[in-house]
Amino acid sequence: MPTIMDRRQLLTAVAASALLPVAALAQNAVTVPVAVAGKPGKVPEGMKLPLLPQLESFPLWPEGKVPGSAGVPAKEEWILRNPKDGDPNDTAALHVTNPILMVRRPAKPDGSAVLMIPGGSYTRVAVTRSGSSIDETFANLGSTVFIMTYRLPHDGWATGPEAPLQDAQRAIRLIRHRAKEFGIDPARVGVTGFSAGGHLAGWLTESFGRNTYEPVDEADKLSSKPLVTGLFYPVMSMMAPYAHETSVKNMFPKGGTDEEKRKISLEFNLPADMPPTFLAHAGDDPAVAPENSLILFQALRAQKTPTELHLFEVGGHGLIENGKDLPHLALFEIFAKRHALWK
């Protein structure tokens, strides 16, 4: 059910659409339910409405410089994830060809930044175009929040499974490169990831010691190592028995060997100087087995990486109980303050 703010945003979009020519509405549009006279309803069949405006954003790569893009047939589009629910901000990006960073600016910036990586099983990027309560929470702590979209391996990129990792490395470097513009301390950049985005955030965190693409500009001379990392109900392993099978299939659409899967399973590839890593998961998660977080926590602890795990009894895939968020973000705040992301 949409919130009051969602309804206001949607009605504004309806009003704005009346002022636009039909050709303009057809671009970047989807069919969505609307509220008429305060009652739920549906747009007449065939009518289109524009998606809500995107947050301030900019591309990750200079035009024509996306690695391994030659011959890729994918065509990027944005969709509503659940059109029948009437939430115009519950969106996802499909077949990403031009990954971006969307920016949530804090009212009272403290110099920190958070790179936020949404999930989507590597099928799509489940990201809210107009921002979410999560990036709002980080912004309220003083961080400039950068929410990324990323390329998906099943779209046929020459770099295969590493296409999203290239985007993540580029993202954190670009944040540091533009630190002065955004009033950021380049040493205080953290990373958070959710579900499959948790896998990508963890993969980014452990891969700072190697470059996955040829530099394209001055930004690529900078470090891709985050100060601290938060992984929430993350996909972690690509190996049976705890792998998230949909993510595995999308990473290796033609099938992958055990050796290939092992290379991108986080528990096998942790550097000795892995940044501090926080994990949160629910024991009843029906999508991503909590063993993903348990195994990674044990591997981090064995090598004495600063780490913390919160395994909630209930919370499903999303850490929500009875319609309310569990306190995982507040617990991450304590951990991140301990490791100097926030003061």
UniProtKB/TrEMBL annotation:
It holds the Pfam family BD-FAE. The keyword Hydrolase applies. GO terms for molecular function: hydrolase activity. Gene3D superfamilies: alpha/beta hydrolase. Residues 112-300 form the BD-FAE-like domain. Keywords: Hydrolase, Signal. Residues 1-26 form the signal peptide. InterPro entries: AB_hydrolase_fold, BD-FAE-like_dom, GDXG_lipolytic_enzyme, TAT_signal. It comes from the Bacteria. This is Alpha/beta hydrolase. The lineage of its organism: Bacteria, Pseudomonadati, Pseudomonadota, Alphaproteobacteria, Hyphomicrobiales.
